[in-house]
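ok so dumb question maybe but i'm new to this and my supervisor (M.) told me to 'just get the structure for Putative PTS system IIA component' and walked off. so i did the thing. is this what she meant?? sequence i used:
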Amino acid sequence: MADDNAILPGSIPGIILVTHGRFGEELIRSAEMIVGAMESVRALSLMPGMEPDDFLAAVKTALESMPEGSLLISDLFGGTPANVSAAISTTRNIGAVSGLSLSMLIEAASSRMALRGEALAEAVVQAGRNNCRNILAQLRGIDSV
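this is what came out, is it supposed to look like this??
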């Protein structure tokens, strides 16, 4: 099925990091050390004792100010932030991926200038895959060439 939102005709999609604890907030700070300030990027933190319904409501509220084709990136597949993302993505035109990393956030922030929706989500997942490496094995491969 074609993704009607793959090419960005209007406003830039927002990015919301949904994480256990303050991981997302710190990841934004780390990414900004590399790429500079990122607009429309937020982190929502699931804190100890917080009810999943309250977290769901907070994510929905944050998405209200973001255009269609925005992206939720959660830290851990199967955790509450990912489950909240899954629930919201079935009712709104947004992307949702899990496995949050610094490389995925940087890819999302740069690719959203040209992509949105499912195409943006796939670019972000691919960045996560491409940056997961056994460094020693990579170095051995370079040495054998």
